[in-house]
Amino acid sequence: MSVDIFLSLLTAAFALMVVFSKKTVVAAFALLMTLLTIAIIYFQVGTVFLSAVQVLVNAGAIAILFVFVMMLINLEQFPNNREKNKMKLIITSFTVLVIMGVLALVINNNIEMLSVENLTDNSMKALFDKLFTAYYLPFELATMLLLAAIVACIVITSHEKHEKHEKEELLETEKNR
Amino acid sequence: MSIYYYLSAFLFCLGLLGITFKKDLISMLLCLELMLGGVALLFILFSKATGFIDAQLMVIFMMIISACEVAIGLSLIIALYRKKQTIYTNDIKILTE
Amino acid sequence: MEIASFAVFFVIACTLGAFLLGISSLLGQKRKIVRENDVYESGVNPVGSAIRQYDIKFYVTAILFLLFDVEIVFLLPWALAYGESSDKAFMISGFVFFMVILLVGYIFVINSKALKWEE
Amino acid sequence: MLIEIVEILLKIVIILALPLGALPIIIHVERRGAAFMQKRLGPNRVGPFGLLQPLADVAKFMFKEEVHPTHVRDFFYTAAPLVALVVALLPLACIPIAAPIDAFGKTIYPEVFRSDMGIFFAFAASALGSYGILLAGWASNNKYSMLGALRACAQMVSYELSLSTSVVAMIFLYGTNDIHLIIKAQTGYWFGFLPMWGFFLQPVAALLFLVGIFAESNRLPFDLAEGESEIVAGYHLEYSSMKFALFFMAEYIHMIALSALFIIFFFGGYSLLPGMEIIANKSPILLVALQAISFITKIALMIWFFVWVRWTLPRFRYDQLMNLGWEKLLPLGIANLIVTVLFVYFRNP
I need a labelling partner for B97 at 20 to 30 A (CA). Which of B52, B70, C40, D135 fits? Predict the structure, then answer.
């Protein structure tokens, strides 16, 4: 039981660092640590395959992407003296606290029902059999989604093509003037 | 085991708070990733509690979708940064050129 | 049990690194020469701030790595599930469909000059 | 309870002592090997045959002045070498030295972190390797080190793809994730003399994994990050004395861990070397010792291969390097995967 408490306090601490840290690169590395501690929690809870995938995909690829973008977009050069309108902050933090209270209340009411363990066969084999027989279609659609993401990212980040179009249009306008 | 429910709720609300507090787009995306982590943890806890193993598959698909979402989100931020040289939300208020 | 042994391993690795750093900061000489603390640009006076615009190719590589890595990592459960699966033809059809989409994405990446490094 | 504590500590001591103990030897072998290939002598002044030279280096690193430049981000500046070292050590936790032994009434697994996803965790831990580099590049707040860190990470990241395709091909053939079962599938002989190693099963995947290892550990011909000529010294530019030595150690340990993975997949891990079976079945302790010895000799040969390649191949240009990674190795990995899957399917549907 004490391991659970220690792990959740660690995750909460890193999550707080993500939200309340001044520099964004510090927030990115704090997010990396949160994802790693969540992977350890997955292992503690028993889902071994998901913790390995979490380390490899979330901590190993997504967090790298964040740090790369941080390095690409240098934020420190902007003077961050944006005025914080106090009213907005108070209202939002109040509503989030209310949401947190409601969630805690809901969990508190049926904690007995929730913390009973009746997952019989937790082995990876059961998980994978279901993944490729019952959930065959979502798996294929997920690859389609990834294909769409690949095409979208390349088109969005490569701007040479648009400039070429603009130049061609300019040439045409001169020609037929 | 039961403390993880509170942890996932806390992560979700912290992500929500972060999105409203943060000034630039990348930090908002970071906090969004935090919320996704909280919800994925909840899926796993429910799959343990109810014995319904498909919830763990949902986490796998959530990872695929969160990877695509982060990829496209950051590409948009790069394109925005290239056009407007800033990603502070206060400066990006005008819809026209 | 595994988590306990892994935690002990992690703690010992961290103390090892900290111990080595601690020793060197204790034993090393302390000479305060201001010139030493400048940015190192092979002797030349540093020009401009270190944070400047870097090439977008680094970012495009990382983004494509993320998307292809997710696709390849989710082949691993397929590889494990193939052994015990009863209907192998069904699995192979899923694999072929998966690979076709992966190759379509890959061919698009190759033709799209996104990863061409030579300017 | 006491037995478990002793067991854990013993395993950790063995797993940490082997690579850290082997480090001076590897550095010495690298120097003498380089000298041997270039027809010169190499270090032989300090101690017999220069064997104490690495220890002299370590002592030198300890006594050098800790230069702490003012412009760096302090906390991350010192954290980066620690992160690099710890992340390099993590994959070692899942790599077994010998077969599981059943003593004291239960089977004792030799690796520290026992799980049936063992190979997957080792592979995931080696994927975290680029964080130490990124942190160092960002923390030292210097144009050259940031560019070096970005280049090193982009290279490691793009070669990890072809590495994972070959891992998927091998796991598909072995059908399991557990390291001990993979090695059990590789013991034995084809036609009497050829050991049933994964290398003969899948030479293309072995080639991909090998190239991936060279790129992942930033070894020549892929060490663009520290290319002295282009960018001064890459991500560990602003570091001196012990912090630089930690990066050095992290690179070597990362190399040892990756070559151990390579040997587990393709050269039968701790399965006994061809000649060893005759004396192996005397007593279980001897068997375990022989397995550990055969595993260590394979890793030593692999390290010699690293040194050998380092002094024969010239360094790649950066666009050739990325071109090779994306346009040559990745399609080869995908094609190899498709061919193996269809071959296995059509051989016995």
Answer: B70
Over range C39-48, report the average pLDDT: 59
Whole-angstrom distance, CA of residue D59 vs CA of residue D51: 14
* DSSP character at residue D106: E
Which tokens is D289 given?
A: 């010792």
Q: pTM value?
A: 0.89
> Which part of chain A is CATH 1.20.120.1200?
1-76
C59 to chain B, any CB pair closer than 8 A? The answer is: yes
Instruction: Please tell me the distance in Å from D48's CA to the nearest CA on chain A.
Output: 45
Query: CATH assignment of A1-76?
Result: 1.20.120.1200
Q: Which two tokens stand for residue D337?
A: 């995967």
Cβ pair C56:B78 closer than 8 A? yes
CB contact under 8 A, D12 and C8: yes
pLDDT of residue D349: 64
A17 touches chain B (CB under 8 A): no
The rounded distance, in Å, linking the Cα atoms of A41 and A28 is: 20
Residues in chain A within 8 Å Cβ distance of D216: none
Look at the block and give the residue holding tokens 């890793």. D299
DSSP C108: H
Give the ipTM: 0.89
B16 lies in which domain range?
A: 3-84
**Which residues 108-137 in chain A show a CB within 8 A of chain B?**
111, 113-122, 126-127, 130-131, 134-135
**Is residue A157 over pLDDT 80?**
yes
Instruction: State yes or no: chains B and D have 3 or more CB pairs below 8 A.
Output: no
CA distances from A20 to A77, B21, B97 (A): 20, 9, 33
Average pLDDT over residues A141-148: 93
Instruction: Report the alpha-carbon distance of residue D189 to residue C43 in Å, rounded.
Output: 60
Q: Examine residue D4 and state whether it is found in any structural domain, yes or no.
A: no
